Model the fold of this input.
Amino acid sequence: MKQIYLDNASTTKVDTKVVEAMIPYFSEKYGNASSQHLIGQEAKRGLEESRHTIAKSIKAKDDEIIFTSGGTESNNLVLKGLFFANEKKHIITTKIEHDSILNTCKWLEKQGAKITYLDVDKGGFVNPEDVENAIGSETLVVSIIHGNNELGTIQNIEKIGEICRAKEVYFHIDACQSYTKVPINVGKQDLDFVTLNSHKIHGPKGVGALYIKKGIKINPILHGGGHEFSLRGGTENISGIVGFAKAVKIIKNSNLKKINELRDKLINEILKIPNTKLNGPKDNRLCNNINISFGNIEGEAIGGYLDAYGICSSTGSACSSHTMETSHVLKAIGLSDLEANTSIRLSLSKFNNEEEIDYVLKVLPKIVKKLRRMSPIK
Ligand SMILES: Cc1ncc(COP(=O)(O)O)c(C=O)c1O
Done:
């Protein structure tokens, strides 16, 4: 059966152009970028050209980009790295962060950090005034998810950046979901740290980056041989890094427009099914995100039926779905456990087309009808 992949917020298919760009770094330019010989220097060139591509994409300087193993490591590095390099111990974040931020914060609390977890409104937006009010003399950093992985909510980082600058606290955004979908300009948006990864944008898994504004000191968490400006020890994953940069280079704005149109069609048509509700905002939402609650039926059950029809969806974020806990993000926007568990997330990519969307729209209402007939809750 043909698979219709609508779980692109979890991960994406690697573009064949990305694979092609990576292959020479396994078979010909396989050197260690620290080696002085020709093959090592070819690897070094691949590394530095990739660093330039990533830096340029967010209007940063090349030496402000550190390559990591992904979003999780970048998020750990910024919070732990700052905490252990500074006297100030207060971190401000939100209740709708990815687990790699929330669990890092929980761990840092055990090391003596004081964490403020800000509330969000019904759409998942942080109120910049709340950020301002939470900042005190002990505040070290404000860490906010730019585009939410479950709801698609895009935060007003310009405003929050302005506040952080005025109050002289560091500002970090986790941009794993928004990168290349929403413009990031580290200067204009007053950003000190930005977390990026590759596998959400048709690049390989296990590669990411952290932008660190020049002059800010953090401690490494991986100590090693001086790689990545002595901030991240370990031989660089050159093929992965080259693939990441290639994924960035081939992004086309026309694809974003197409994804946006398909998303709107899906949302508008699904909402015609009785007793359905869009979770997250209508505007300022990632172009590929849909999150909908279906009254009285389990999201897990809908996902199971969709899978049987060859449609890949998800409930909550993939990272938390194996714990079977109710999504902390849906709870933060005010959904009850019951309501949150009736939701599914569909997330699109450039590889989806209208025919696939029409198929989903044919199948989904039938599944909902069938499950509602079977549901004990009316
Ligand atoms: C917002 C956000 N932050 C961080 C991560 C973690 O990234 P990675 O899978 O590269 O470790 C993800 C991926 O699920 C994410 O969506």
About this structure: The CA atoms of residues 69 and 207 lie 4 Å apart. The chain has a mean pLDDT of 96.
